[in-house]
């Protein structure tokens, strides 16, 4: 019986698909075998190299891959997958992995916590493998000299917990999300709710260990001050593999105070926010305020017509962190920001570790042990962007912004206070340049649950439209951006002959005048651009 043309065509497609999949697995297996052999040759004799390397055919491959993907946008069948995943358990294995990756000629993605918003620590459009650092998470706190060595695979929650174990009057100025990985957070800047008092995480790094392109482990002394400067805000993955940082702890009072106050437009939110812009970078350095700006729908009051049972508005949530008791906080607020109308009953006093739980949105009374939980419960697709505001936005322009937020419906904004210690540290002190002159930082945020390319396109367009709308009100020439709010919309590098020119597009936004120094460091330590990705620092041509 003769086959029809359509049947034979379908069979041919299926056969080609099968051969293509077989070829991928064969290639993957070949690379896996070569990598394991190389790793064994460059590691201690006791290492069973296959025990830390996962090929795509390994039954645990998908579990290991997805364990530290924090944005479900990148857990789809079409998302590029690594050929292998390497999960080193000691520093020598990291060195061996770098040497073998370089010798085999496969790009490496370095993942510590997986919170890269655009997934660049675990996806790529070229063949690659993931160097997954989650096993390297030891933390050694020394209260006597007020320092801690923390490995790159540790999460912030673990660091906070280990500090709390040793002292009730020490902390560390870093992010509020406890599952963020230390390696990426610190190498990109790192900020949290103590930045007005103590600056950024990078302002408290006193030593580091990194594996360079030759597989050599370097500390601050052996790497030199230029490279040490670069990995404190310039993104470690452009220069090598960060193994660990030594950080200087900060003093925190026995009692801190938090508050949360919500205001809608009907409750004078516009006037309050307008005034907030004029004081937030000048108020007492012990106070940090984060504002959540969100479009919402509220029910109308009784007696409203059926057509007006609900209405759309904007809600602004003022969340405060004060390094002191509520009595002193009330004194500061009544003097400098009475417009908010903060009351004593709005304030909650607690110790610093309890404030960590509060800011991470855990219920009151939750055990501090929850900070050791490395899993994230985020099941939403997401996109984030960033901006810096250097002049107060007028009331008229704020009202225009509220209309835009209501029109778009989904994206929200987060305003983070600047000033204080941030104004005192020179922009060139670390690669992170956004210091004096910024009133507050904006994070644009949109989350969604719908799967598929159409939903992705819809929500990405919404946040991009909001970002575009804000152009007249934010920094310019260049328009600043925060490296740790990774955003490939502002430029990507194809790592070809135009690498420097392409890198300068996003590099100027992330690093301002520090970009050229980063390029010089990159050229000195990795001239062949082995450590590269879509937004890495390029070497000179």
Report what the structure shows.
Strands 15-12-14-13-17-18-16 form a seven-stranded antiparallel sheet. The chain has 541 residues and is α+β, with helices and mostly antiparallel strands. The model is unreliable at 13-26 (pLDDT under 50). α1 crosses α3 and α12 packs antiparallel against α14 (453-469). The chain has 16 helices and 18 strands. Helix content is 33%, strand content 20%. A hairpin with a 4-residue loop joins β5 and β6 (147-151).
Structure characteristics:
541 residues, alpha+beta, five-stranded antiparallel beta sheet, 16 helices, globular
Short description:
The protein has 541 residues and is α+β, with helices and mostly antiparallel strands.
Summarize the topology:
Layout (H helix, E strand, L loop, with lengths): L4 H37 L11 E3 L5 H7 L16 E3 L4 H14 L2 E5 L16 E5 L6 E4 L4 E5 L4 H11 L3 E2 L10 H6 L7 H4 L6 E7 L5 E3 H4 L1 H6 L10 E8 L1 E2 L4 E9 L4 H11 L7 E13 L10 E13 L3 H11 L10 E4 L1 H8 L21 E9 L5 H14 L3 E6 L3 H4 L15 E9 L4 H17 L29 H13 L3 H11 L16
Parallel strand pairs: 2-4, 3-4
Antiparallel strand pairs: 1-2, 5-6, 6-10, 7-11, 8-9, 8-10, 12-14, 12-15, 13-14, 13-17, 16-18, 17-18
């Amino acid at each position: 019986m003769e086959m029809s043309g359509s049947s034979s065509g379908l069979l041919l497609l299926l056969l080609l698909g099968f051969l293509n999949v077989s070829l991928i697995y064969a290639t993957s297996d070949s690379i896996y075998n070569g990598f394991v052999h190389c790793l064994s040759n460059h590691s201690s004799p006791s290492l069973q190299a296959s025990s830390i390397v996962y090929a795509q055919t390994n039954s645990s491959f998908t579990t290991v891959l997805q364990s530290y993907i924090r944005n479900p946008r990148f857990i789809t069948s079409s998302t590029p997958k690594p050929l292998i995943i390497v999960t080193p358990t000691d520093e020598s294995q990291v060195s061996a992995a770098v040497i073998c990756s370089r010798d085999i000629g496969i790009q490496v993605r370095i993942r510590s916590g997986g919170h890269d918003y655009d997934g660049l620590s675990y996806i790529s459009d070229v063949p690659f493998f993931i160097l997954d650092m989650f096993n390297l998470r030891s933390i050694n706190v020394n209260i006597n000299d007020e320092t801690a060595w923390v490995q790159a695979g540790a999460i912030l929650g673990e660091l906070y917990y280990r500090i709390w174990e040793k002292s009730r009057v020490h902390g560390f100025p870093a992010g509020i999300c406890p599952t963020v990985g230390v390696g990426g957070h610190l190498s990109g800047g790192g900020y949290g709710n103590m930045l007005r008092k103590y600056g950024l995480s990078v302002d408290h790094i006193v030593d580091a260990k990194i594996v360079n392109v030759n597989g050599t482990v370097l500390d601050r002394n052996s790497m030199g001050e230029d490279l040490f400067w670069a990995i404190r805000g310039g993104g470690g993955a452009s220069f090598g593999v960060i193994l660990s940082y030594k950080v200087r702890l900060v003093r925190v009072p026995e009692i801190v105070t938090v508050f949360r106050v919500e205001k809608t437009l009907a409750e004078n939110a516009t006037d309050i926010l307008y005034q907030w812009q004029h004081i937030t970078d000048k108020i007492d350095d012990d106070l940090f305020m984060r504002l959540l700006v969100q479009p919402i729908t509220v029910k109308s009051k009784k007696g409203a017509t059926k057509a007006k049972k609900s209405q759309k508005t904007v809600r602004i949530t003022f969340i405060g962190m004060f390094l002191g008791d509520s009595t002193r906080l009330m004194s500061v607020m009544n003097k400098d920001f009475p417009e908010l109308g903060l009351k004593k009953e709005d304030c909650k006093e607690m110790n610093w570790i309890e404030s960590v739980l509060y800011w991470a949105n855990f219920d009151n009374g939750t055990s501090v042990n929850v900070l050791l939980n490395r899993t994230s419960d985020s099941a939403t697709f997401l996109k984030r962007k960033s901006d810096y505001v250097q002049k107060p936005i007028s009331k008229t322009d704020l009202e225009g912004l509220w209309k835009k937020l209501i029109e778009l419906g989904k994206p929200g904004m987060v305003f983070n206070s600047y000033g204080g210690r941030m104004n005192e540290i020179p922009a060139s002190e670390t690669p992170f340049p956004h210091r004096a002159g910024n009133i507050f930082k904006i994070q644009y945020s949109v989350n969604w649950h719908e799967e598929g390319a159409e939903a992705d396109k819809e929500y990405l367009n919404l946040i991009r439209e909001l970002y575009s709308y804000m152009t007249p009100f934010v920094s310019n020439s260049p328009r600043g951006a925060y490296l740790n709010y990774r955003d490939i919309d502002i430029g990507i590098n194809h790592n070809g002959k135009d690498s420097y020119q392409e890198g300068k597009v996003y590099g100027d936004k992330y690093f301002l005048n520090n970009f050229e120094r980063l390029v010089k460091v990159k050229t000195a330590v990795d001239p062949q651009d082995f450590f590269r990705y879509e937004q890495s620092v390029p070497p000179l041509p």
